[in-house]
Input
Amino acid sequence: MFALTPHRLSLMLAGIAGLGAVWFLPPWLKRLSQTWRVVFIGSILTVLGGWFILVTGGDPQAMLVLLILLLSFLIALLRPIAALLFYLALIYIRPQEIYPSLGVLKPVALTGFMGMGMWALRTAVERGRSRFLRTPNDLMLPLFWAIALISVLTNDPKLWKQVITSFMDKPVVHFLILGTIFTMRRLKLIILALLIYTVTLAAGGIWQHFTGIGLGGQTPIEGRIRALGIFSDPNDLAQAFVTCLPLLAWFIFEEEYPIAVKALGSVIGGALIYGIYLTGSRGGVLSLAAVIGLYARRRFGTIIAVALAALMLIGMISLGPSRLGRISARDESAQGRLEAWWAGLEMFKSHPIFGVGYSRFTEYHYLVAHNSFVHVLAEMGFVGAFIWLAMIYCAAKSLLELIAYAGESEEGRIGYALLSALAGFLLSSLFLSRSYNILLYLIMALSLSLRVMISERKGVEEIRFTTFDAITVLGMEVSLIAGVYLLLKFTT
Output
């Protein structure tokens, strides 16, 4: 079994550093004769081969892992946006879980940090291209991370490493997106990649439903499809499908795309909706109806939008699994969720400032909160919940202002699709504890990137977080706490 010892790690890092140095040699190589070029390249390959053997000890699986790591490094070196695409593929498709030997070197974390490093290097070299500190979330997200760390240091200090490792994907995605998406073409590329990754999950889920085994050997749970990693819960998978549907609708209704693309998009949309049905997620079905209504309202008007949403909701509940028809506050599952909400408020009451600690909800209650706001309020207190709401507020505000300015232009239409995607995620989060889910931070980063892009190209004022905004978010937080409390008082 391959073990990543300090000696091997040192060799690996030295080799990667050497490979990075070779990147700056091409101008010098051009001055060499063809014979000396062959000798030089042959020497590099020989050294690289010996390095492979030293690091891996000749283990074939370890050599495959290292090869993938090198490829990810080269991708990040050539194009940071390619590193972003590769990073998202690792998050969605999870090859490191399909082939466990790939997980030895933590490819998700390494690819993310490589991409961040290359972005930082290019930012330093290419003046005028920096996107750092262009949005309020650039400061709020690291602050949110710091509050998560404080929340565990004040309650259970031994968890500090878990906070650092489990939280790092949020700033990585945020800054990679803000730092690499400068054009509409790049934004469309990322959205297209998300659609491809999501429909891959849907296809794997449908295959799993009919054969009993899906991608990576994953099996259904109580007849409900699921995927690997962060989508191993059927509700999470449904949330991913719902979030992606407005982005797919934007591709379908864009006039610039041929009829074949629209037809393919319609088939993919059907697969995603069928995937939501197969997850048996009640929150997913309700969010689907709401997202369809929200997106259709702008295109077809309020009456048609309400009719479409109602038809979708009635159809899914009537034809779906029996659990979809049990959407009631008196259902046993719903009662358990309400109890979890009450437990969350009790945690907030006992630890009001920084909460009981990041990722410690289940140490105080046998269920997770089943509500993203209650979850972050309980774990990170009033301060953490304020920052969390403020980040969402800034993303939504940036899109609403952009839509008001851009109207029916391409930027306005894609802005509305992103707003619908954000709404879809948040609606499903009413029933799930997904305060730290990477999808939320991905959609927010895409939204802010679009806004920054428009500000640069058309001179629109950049997004600001003013005193009025802070008071608004504060009012939202107090209202949500009071609303949850009153709801529990009158239903339990």
